[in-house]
Structure formats: C-alpha cells, structure tokens
Amino acid sequence: MLDIIIRNGTVVTPWGVGDWDVAIQGERIVAVAAANTLTDEVGRVIDATGKVVIPGGIEPHAHIAAPIMGPGNLRTAPPEEVSRAALFGGTTTLMDFAIQYPGINIAEAVQERTDVWRGNSYADYAHHLMLLGEIPENILGSLHEHIEDGFASVKIFTTNIRPPEMSGESRMVRMGHLHDLMEQIQRNDGMLLVHSEDDDMVQHMYEKLAREEQNEWWNMHLVHSNESEDVSFRRVIRVSEWTGAPVYFVHVSALQGINAIGEARSKGLPIYGETLHNYCCFNADNYKEEYGMKYHTYPSLKSEEDRQALWRGIAQGGLNTMATDEYCTNWNLKIQGRTVRDVTGGHNGAETRVGVTYSEGVVRQGMSLERFVDVTSTNAAKIMGLYPRKGAIAPGSDADIVLIDPSIQRPLTMDDFHISDYSIWEGFAASGWPVMTIMRGKVVVENGQLNASLSDGQFLRRKVNPEVTNRPAC
Description:
474 residues; TIM Barrel; 2 domains; 8-stranded parallel β-sheet; 7-stranded mixed β-sheet; 15 helices; globular
C-alpha cells in the first residue's frame, strides 16, 4: 500500500516535465508513472490540478544562530525560526556553517552546531565547515577526516569584509593558506566555498570614503566594488588552476564575477557560482531609499546592468544556484547602522527564495521549469553532495516535494511571512507561490498551517561526486 499519490500536476523530473503520478511510501519516492496508471491502494491522493510539482528547495548558504559581526554578542535567528519559514517557502533543506575559531578544533566546531540544531529544526539540515584567518597545520591535517565523515564542503573568506573596528575575529585567508587548503580539498574530493573580495581594495575604500566624508550607507557598492570582485575571483581561479581544486563562489554580485566563472568553466575547470535573489531584484539605487540599508547583504548590491546580468546567469546559464545568504535580524538592528562602516548585512530570505525565483524568473523572464528546479534545488544538491537523495523527483529520492500555485497573483504582505518583523519582499508582486510542502513523505505545510515538529529535521552527511569536483558538471 502506498502512503501518498500526487496526481494531475505539472511535475518537474530529471528527465523532463510532464503530467506524472508521483508515489510516496514512507520517506521515499517509489514511483513516477504516467498519469492515472498507479492502481495500488493508497492512504491519500493529493490532487495537484493546476499546480507545479517540484523537488523541495535546498538553501546552500545560510547563517543561522550565527554571531552578528560588530559589537555585542548578538546572533541571527535560530534554527526553529528559520526552518519554519523555510518550509512555508518550499525549502526543505538548509545548509549553515560550523565555524572553527582559533583555539578550537573542527570537531569542537561541529559539536557546537550539533548542540544548536539537534531537535530544533523543522527542516533537514547540513553544515559546511568554515575556516578563518591563518589556518593552522593541525587543522589542515585533520580536514580529510571530517570530509570523509560527511562534512564535504569548506568555506573561507579572502577579505575581513568590514573595517577593523567592526570585523571582530580575523576572517581573511591569504593566498598561501588558500593554496594549501585547496590541495587538501582537491585530494579529498571536497568542495571549497569562497567569499571572494580583494581585501586591500575593500579596506582602502573604507579609509578613502572616510577621508572624503562619503561614509553614507548608500556608498556601499564603492567599497565592495565590481573591480574587487573581478580581481579576487581571478586570483582564486588561478590558484584553483594550479591545485585542481573545485571552487563554489558564494553571492556573486557583479557581471565581472559571472564572466570570470564562465571563462574558467570554458577551460573545463570545476568552478561554480551562486547569486542571491535580492541581488537579482534590487540594485544600488535602492540603497538611496529611506531605510535603504535594509537591502544590504555583503558584498553589496551593484548596478542595474549587474542586476540584469545576474538574472541572465540564473535563467539562461552562467550561474548555478539561487541562494539567500540568510542572516536574519530584527528591524531595529537592521536599520541601526547608517554608514558603510557599521551597516548590518543579511536579510531574511529563506522563505521567499523559491517563490520569488518562480515569479520573476519563470513567469516574467521565461525561465524553463527545468532550469528553475536546477537553480533552486538540483544544482545545490549535486555541488554539495546531496544528490540524488535530495534535489530530484525520482524513484529512490527523499519525498521532498513542493506544490506551487501559479494562480496566486498579488502583492505580498507581512501576513505572508513567518519570520522577523520586516521583509524587503513586502509588496513584491507574486505570480505563483508555494502552497504545500512535503518533507520525506510528511505533509508539513498545507492550507497555511505548519504540521511539523522540531524533531522532524534530520542532519545530512554528504559526499561530493568526483564528477562534480573534477569538471564543471552542472
């Protein structure tokens, strides 16, 4: 006996889009068959007439219960809040960071994340490792153990991001340490995530704008500039060429970043890029609005030309994933900083990522449904080592399934959101939105209600396929 059959929807599968029946038994998809051909007894039939049926979204880049850069000991929203919002928005898997601070080892960093997440998430989750500053030899030497243990990805920064008085612990990994880390990543089929900016340029511009009394927050794109992204991406790619290591550039924000990735991939290098849906929908002119700092996520919004290029990269190719860099704070903290030196980055985007990408990408820009699924789910699953368990509607995959209702045509209001006390997406013209979320065979969101418990979320160990780490595979 089957537990669930989903019928009459437009189903997006790895082999195409069609009017398929999807059968679920327990936590897995057990069949995808021609319409009305499954005759097994079934506990529930879900009528998906008029709906688009896609695999659950995968958020590859989120800072959850994370230290907020700047004075004090504040943290971003915890797993219970972010995972709840994510499920409402059609995302069933979240990936955040186990940070190896100086003085602790990687195992202790992982234990900290375990303590934060276990029993506190409605959604499934995984952790990237994050290494800071000058990476000690003993940390590099132990990295292979953790990759083998299912922590398949590592993030580093090539900049301290903010000026010295606001940056806290040194984050920047210099080129020598980057080279040694890449050798370890390549040797062990890991995936290297890079926040890539040229720190000399970033810090120079902080000081230059201070001297010129141009510290207003709306000048943020002058600090975190197109040139900085261009120079830094190309330096990192050159080290990747020497070592053979795969690189996943997080939050690509400029045309120059897209071009650098494209040139590297044309040479057969395993280089990947994500952007953010707020980067695709807003530009640096939005900073000039009253409270325009609400749009800011590091590095920064760029020009209208860059914004359009990011959409082309997502809709037509050139970028691989749509992420959020989730970094949820409340409104008072978000608008507290008023200068390029003290603005708080990040936003609460995990709930809106899938719906905004569908509304703008599919409906208004003509993105195919297959491409939509690739950038919101499948590519992240492949790059981060979750595929085919996650990221596909296929027999054997987890039954993580989302129904999108294209008939929803209206501006979003605060009543549509389930996290924080503000959203930059208030007023966004939705043209289709997630209305049902199934996670591992359990209907967790239906009719605007959450039907999940904090014990539902499972930790996911991962191993990246060598095809992904040795060539541009998706």
